[in-house]
Amino acid sequence: MLNFKILKQSKNSRARAGVLTTSHGEVETPALVTVATQAAVKTLTSEEAEAAGSRLLICNTYHLHIRPGEKMVKKQGGLHTFMQWQRPLMTDSGGFQVFSLGFGREHGMGKVLKAKSSLSIADGTQPRDIKITDEGVFFRSYLNGAQFFLNPKESIRIQEALGADSMIAFDECPSPVADYAYMKTSLRRTHRWAEESLAAKKSKKQALYGVMQGGRFRDLREESARYIGKLPFEGFAVGGEFGSSKRVMVSMLKLVFENMPNEKPRHLLGIGHPEDILPIIKAGVDTFDCVAPTQYARRGIAFTPDGRLDMKKSVFLSDKKPLDAACGCFVCGTYKRGYITHLLRAHEITALKLLTFHNLYYFNAYISRIRENIKNGNI
Fold this sequence. Notes:
The chain is of the alpha/beta class. It has helices spanning 46-51, 61-66, 70-75, 79-82, 95-100, 103-107, 152-162, 180-200, 218-229, 246-258, 274-283, 292-298, 330-334, 337-345, 350-375, and strands at residues 2-9, 16-22, 25-29, 31-35, 57-59, 89-91, 131-132, 137-140, 147-150, 166-168, 207-212, 235-238, 266-268, 287-290, 301-304, 307-310. Strands 4-5-6-10-11-12-13-14 form an 8-stranded parallel β-barrel, surrounded by 6 helices. A 3-stranded antiparallel β-sheet has the order 1-2-3. A 3-stranded antiparallel β-sheet has the order 7-8-9.
């Protein structure tokens, strides 16, 4: 069950405020989808994640298949019961791991290039550690090296066993250095897998999102939006990379949304640093997932209105101010910068919990203000 209602469409941009309704409650949009890769928001309990403002989590199909296995999760009552999260949940498909454990690992890069690269992946090239075919992908378990095969049918089977409210169709997340010919072949594969994912779906309680790809190539992005947009998915996700700049990314998102149904929810996969949030929302994104709040916390970084603070630096040891004086989270209301810096430098894991809670609260509060600005006609 998934229902999406647009409450306010901005007259100043393509931003919209809405509400997603699932069998586990509602989510006001736009919203951050907090990453809970292995059925946990790293360093936090489910109750703490909710207290930090998270209303929708996304878990990782690939990792949960390897450990503990979808059969074990299903025996425990499904993901909601297993992790004691009674709000809405999403699961991804394993499509990102086609990139991250393939060309991403081989070339030491993420899906968004931080600098120009001379690398180019030609059509027909295979990554070193996995094998991609038109039928699916051969992986090896990082636990015991055993080979296993993931395709649309298997991905949907696993996701249905996990039992999240929303699932994502299996796709190939391509490398940002793939050439046009490779990207075109990859796109055809993703489109084929989208139809196979729909055909494999048996659950009537779970929604399925189709994934649009196409990389930095405008014609392929438009083709994918039109193709996937005509299929009977309950929602749509935009994946992959978008080019060399944030300006190009926003332009590409607008192009995609112009060529897909307006009334269904739009999810952006793996994008959502603070500087990204307002531009992607103005472009028309409803939900987006990003590891930045939790991942940066584990590196000792706090997000604030004045930028990122590296709390490992000794300059903060004598600092008696909170991380962010304007923040309403319990961390900023209780602890000082000096204490958190001490914990980090003493390698106390409590620091990671405090920073993670603050960062999630900061992101969610920022997005909440954006929602209100959309409703009030200011964005």
